[in-house]
């Protein structure tokens, strides 16, 4: 305890170290609270915040599609044959080309109402993922993998919705069933078509990112029938979520017992976007400050010859190293948690006030991000401390620490292509940035799941484990040399 107290007293007495810690917090606050990002949901001010579409589970969702439907009461079923699904991709004004988004959708849907975000279940044919059953935006179940004409059937019994598909309309294969809690007695049932934006990886010089644009799909339906108790009225068309403003979608065309329907949008999770992670954009600058602090906290004693005095007062060198690590790590963790908590709380308010459509994050996720950012800074500072003890020279230790800890993150989010970036953030200490991930990856949503978009290859605590592993190795090597060296 006396060694720990001595190291804490030493840390507080060195003005440069205290200022370095304050600088780290200041940089995180500066970047996190700067009103640089703005949105297009309205003018600046409290009334400009975007209003997200919220699904039945409280999550943000996308709910935009063309719906040819009729109100149907009680139990029953509806079936249809999807004969074709075609589409167009728009690369810019006047730049239309044939193409179909992999998750373009055409099929049958039962929906509790016409309000975006209301509960639903659907069976559908996709652009390149076969037949699927999807419900309540976040749930997806694979059916047959065929891409030719498909028969689809959707049945309701109370709150239970069952889906099936067939290639001939005679032999049916059940895909799945789900319970839609609170499904009203009268629901909206019918055909729907939608097509999400396409996304692709983009490289410009030394920079990487993603690009995309809207798509449109057209589904051809035949032999649309209702049965088993359902006898509907006329079919009506609604553009749920609003009609697209970037193109003129043709109105659905009735063709005998079928329809030709065009749609654009998506029905599913909100996907990629601006999240609470954006408020912590200054973490890497604060990380540079604490890495420098950790490296010089040990190497300075070698440079000034103070290490002999330290070891003379405390001959057990490994305890000295452990005490220094505890002081540096504890102080950095504390200041990191405070700074990140401030920017997470107030940074989100600033973004929303600027009209930015901010993805929601649960309280648990935000607590993990705040604590994780503190841990990222603290363990990185201890790793740099180990490098300072290992290399003894301040400039060398600082350089190596930045190259090992900070540079991989910058390369991954700015320069490298996606696969190389993922590999780099799997094996280097920068893997711990996964602690700041707030967005969830869904297999039924095509995004560029890249570090530059806030997606990391490892789970949050797995990323921290990688950083801890590096730190243990470096500290172990430093401890071994401390025992063998004269000083």
From TrEMBL:
Q: Which residues cross the membrane?
A: 280-300, 321-347, 367-391, 398-418, 461-482
Recite the UniProt keywords alphabetically: Membrane, Transmembrane, Transmembrane helix
Any one of the GO CC terms: plasma membrane
Origin, by domain of life?
A: Bacteria
Q: Name one GO molecular function term.
A: ABC-type transporter activity
Regions annotated as coiled coil: none
State the name under which the record lists this protein.
ABC transporter permease
């Amino acid at each position: 305890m006396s060694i720990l107290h001595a190291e804490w007293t030493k840390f507080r007495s060195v003005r440069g170290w205290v200022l370095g810690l304050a600088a780290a917090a200041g940089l995180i606050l500066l970047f996190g609270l700067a009103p640089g990002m703005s949105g297009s949901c309205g003018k600046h001010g409290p009334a400009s915040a975007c209003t997200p579409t919220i699904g039945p589970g409280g999550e943000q969702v996308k709910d935009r599609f063309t719906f040819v439907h009729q109100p149907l009461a009680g139990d029953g079923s509806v079936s249809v044959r999807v004969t074709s699904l075609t589409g167009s991709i728009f690369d810019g004004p006047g730049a239309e080309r044939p193409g179909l988004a992999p998750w373009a959708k055409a099929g049958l849907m039962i929906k509790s109402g016409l309000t975006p975000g209301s509960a639903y279940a659907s069976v559908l044919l996709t652009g390149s993922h076969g037949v699927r059953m999807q419900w309540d935006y976040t749930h997806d179940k694979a059916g047959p993998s065929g891409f030719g004409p498909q028969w689809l059937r959707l049945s309701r019994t109370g709150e239970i919705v069952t889906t099936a598909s067939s290639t001939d309309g005679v032999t049916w294969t059940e895909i799945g069933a789900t319970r839609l809690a609170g499904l009203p007695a009268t629901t909206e049932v019918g055909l729907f078509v939608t097509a999400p934006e396409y996304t692709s990886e983009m490289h410009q010089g030394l920079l990487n990112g993603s690009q995309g644009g809207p798509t449109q799909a057209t589904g051809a339906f035949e032999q649309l029938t209702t049965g088993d108790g359902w006898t509907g009225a006329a079919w009506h068309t609604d553009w749920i979520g609003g009609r697209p403003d970037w193109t003129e979608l043709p109105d659905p065309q009735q063709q005998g017992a079928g329809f030709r329907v065009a749609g654009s949008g998506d029905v599913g999770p909100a996907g990629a976007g601006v999240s609470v992670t954006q408020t912590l954009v200054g973490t890497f600058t604060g990380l540079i400050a604490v890495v420098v602090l950790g490296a010089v906290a040990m190497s300075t004693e070698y440079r000034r010859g103070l290490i002999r005095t330290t070891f003379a007062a405390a001959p057990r060198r490994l305890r000295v190293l452990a005490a220094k690590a505890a002081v540096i790590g504890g102080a950095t963790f504390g200041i990191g948690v405070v700074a990140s908590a401030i920017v997470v709380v107030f940074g989100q308010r600033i973004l929303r006030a600027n009209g930015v459509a901010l993805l929601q994050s649960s309280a648990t996720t935000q607590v993990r991000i705040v604590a994780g950012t503190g841990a990222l800074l603290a363990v990185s500072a201890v790793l740099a401390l180990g490098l300072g003890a290992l290399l003894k020279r301040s400039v060398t230790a600082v350089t190596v620490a930045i190259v090992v800890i900070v540079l991989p993150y910058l390369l991954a989010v700015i320069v490298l292509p996606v696969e190389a970036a993922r590999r780099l953030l799997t094996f280097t200490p920068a893997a711990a940035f996964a602690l700041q991930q707030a967005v969830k990856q869904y297999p039924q949503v095509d995004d560029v799941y890249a570090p530059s978009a806030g997606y990391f290859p490892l789970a949050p605590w797995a990323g921290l484990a990688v950083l801890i592993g590096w730190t243990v190795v470096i500290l172990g090597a430093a401890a071994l040399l401390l025992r063998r060296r004269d000083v």
